[in-house]
Design goal:
With 134 residues, the protein is mostly beta strands. It is 14% helix and 45% strand. It has a single domain, classed as Thiol Ester Dehydrase, Chain A (Roll).
Length: 134
Amino acid sequence: MTQAFMPEGEDGQHFESFMAFERVEWREGFVRIRVALGPQHRNRQGFIHGGVIGALLDSAGMFAGTYDADTGRGKAAVTVSTACQYIGATKGAAVEAVGELTRAGRSLYFADAKVIDPETGAVLASGQGTYKYR
Protein backbone atom coordinates (compact mmCIF):
# COMPACT_ATOMS: atom_id res chain seq x y z
CA MET A 1 0.00 0.00 0.00
CA THR A 2 1.36 3.39 -0.93
CA GLN A 3 1.05 6.56 1.11
CA ALA A 4 0.60 9.99 -0.40
CA PHE A 5 2.81 12.68 1.12
CA MET A 6 0.18 14.47 3.19
CA PRO A 7 1.24 14.92 6.80
CA GLU A 8 -1.56 15.27 9.31
CA GLY A 9 -2.97 18.78 9.43
CA GLU A 10 -1.78 19.77 5.95
CA ASP A 11 -3.91 20.33 2.89
CA GLY A 12 -1.64 18.45 0.47
CA GLN A 13 -0.30 21.63 -1.11
CA HIS A 14 3.37 20.81 -0.80
CA PHE A 15 6.12 19.73 -3.17
CA GLU A 16 5.90 15.93 -2.88
CA SER A 17 2.13 15.98 -3.47
CA PHE A 18 2.55 18.40 -6.38
CA MET A 19 5.10 16.02 -7.95
CA ALA A 20 2.81 12.98 -7.29
CA PHE A 21 5.48 11.18 -5.23
CA GLU A 22 4.15 8.21 -3.24
CA ARG A 23 5.84 6.30 -0.42
CA VAL A 24 5.80 2.60 -1.22
CA GLU A 25 7.79 1.65 1.88
CA TRP A 26 9.01 3.72 4.83
CA ARG A 27 10.74 2.43 7.93
CA GLU A 28 13.64 3.40 10.14
CA GLY A 29 16.65 4.17 7.91
CA PHE A 30 14.90 3.34 4.62
CA VAL A 31 12.34 4.72 2.17
CA ARG A 32 11.10 3.73 -1.28
CA ILE A 33 9.25 6.39 -3.29
CA ARG A 34 7.42 5.77 -6.56
CA VAL A 35 6.15 8.23 -9.12
CA ALA A 36 3.98 7.44 -12.13
CA LEU A 37 5.49 9.59 -14.88
CA GLY A 38 3.20 12.00 -16.70
CA PRO A 39 4.01 14.63 -19.31
CA GLN A 40 4.83 17.13 -16.54
CA HIS A 41 7.74 14.89 -15.43
CA ARG A 42 9.35 14.63 -18.90
CA ASN A 43 11.64 16.71 -21.07
CA ARG A 44 10.91 17.57 -24.70
CA GLN A 45 12.38 14.26 -25.89
CA GLY A 46 10.02 12.28 -23.63
CA PHE A 47 12.64 11.18 -21.09
CA ILE A 48 12.27 11.84 -17.35
CA HIS A 49 13.51 15.38 -16.62
CA GLY A 50 16.75 15.68 -14.62
CA GLY A 51 15.05 18.00 -12.15
CA VAL A 52 12.55 15.28 -11.27
CA ILE A 53 15.42 12.85 -10.70
CA GLY A 54 17.22 15.38 -8.48
CA ALA A 55 14.05 16.02 -6.48
CA LEU A 56 13.49 12.28 -6.01
CA LEU A 57 17.05 11.78 -4.77
CA ASP A 58 16.69 14.67 -2.32
CA SER A 59 13.30 13.49 -1.04
CA ALA A 60 14.48 9.87 -0.67
CA GLY A 61 17.59 10.96 1.22
CA MET A 62 15.60 13.25 3.49
CA PHE A 63 12.89 10.70 4.31
CA ALA A 64 15.45 7.92 4.91
CA GLY A 65 16.52 9.69 8.10
CA THR A 66 13.22 10.98 9.45
CA TYR A 67 11.07 7.95 10.30
CA ASP A 68 10.17 7.86 14.00
CA ALA A 69 9.48 4.23 14.99
CA ASP A 70 7.78 5.36 18.21
CA THR A 71 5.12 7.42 16.44
CA GLY A 72 5.15 5.97 12.90
CA ARG A 73 5.48 9.52 11.61
CA GLY A 74 8.28 11.65 10.28
CA LYS A 75 10.56 14.04 12.13
CA ALA A 76 11.13 17.49 10.63
CA ALA A 77 14.34 17.98 8.63
CA VAL A 78 15.84 20.20 5.94
CA THR A 79 18.45 19.61 3.26
CA VAL A 80 21.96 20.95 3.92
CA SER A 81 23.63 19.67 0.73
CA THR A 82 23.17 17.10 -2.02
CA ALA A 83 25.26 15.57 -4.79
CA CYS A 84 23.76 13.85 -7.81
CA GLN A 85 25.28 11.62 -10.48
CA TYR A 86 23.09 11.06 -13.55
CA ILE A 87 23.71 7.61 -15.02
CA GLY A 88 20.83 6.85 -17.41
CA ALA A 89 17.43 7.93 -18.69
CA THR A 90 14.03 6.36 -19.25
CA LYS A 91 10.82 6.90 -21.16
CA GLY A 92 9.13 4.34 -18.89
CA ALA A 93 5.81 4.68 -17.12
CA ALA A 94 7.25 5.05 -13.60
CA VAL A 95 10.44 5.36 -11.56
CA GLU A 96 11.33 4.56 -7.97
CA ALA A 97 13.76 6.20 -5.58
CA VAL A 98 15.36 4.32 -2.70
CA GLY A 99 16.95 6.17 0.20
CA GLU A 100 19.11 4.65 2.94
CA LEU A 101 20.40 6.32 6.08
CA THR A 102 24.20 5.99 6.33
CA ARG A 103 24.86 7.82 9.60
CA ALA A 104 22.95 10.01 12.04
CA GLY A 105 24.13 12.37 14.76
CA ARG A 106 22.20 14.66 17.10
CA SER A 107 21.50 17.34 14.53
CA LEU A 108 22.85 16.12 11.15
CA TYR A 109 22.37 12.90 9.24
CA PHE A 110 23.68 11.47 5.97
CA ALA A 111 21.91 9.35 3.37
CA ASP A 112 22.51 7.66 0.03
CA ALA A 113 19.79 7.46 -2.62
CA LYS A 114 19.27 6.09 -6.10
CA VAL A 115 16.58 6.36 -8.76
CA ILE A 116 15.67 3.13 -10.54
CA ASP A 117 13.58 2.17 -13.57
CA PRO A 118 11.36 -0.53 -11.98
CA GLU A 119 10.66 -2.16 -15.36
CA THR A 120 14.32 -2.82 -16.17
CA GLY A 121 16.06 -2.47 -12.81
CA ALA A 122 18.45 0.07 -14.38
CA VAL A 123 19.89 2.69 -12.04
CA LEU A 124 19.19 6.13 -13.52
CA ALA A 125 20.96 8.24 -10.90
CA SER A 126 22.65 8.05 -7.52
CA GLY A 127 23.13 10.70 -4.90
CA GLN A 128 24.26 11.57 -1.42
CA GLY A 129 22.84 14.11 0.96
CA THR A 130 23.40 15.82 4.28
CA TYR A 131 20.29 16.81 6.22
CA LYS A 132 19.57 18.69 9.45
CA TYR A 133 16.91 17.76 11.97
CA ARG A 134 14.71 20.73 12.92
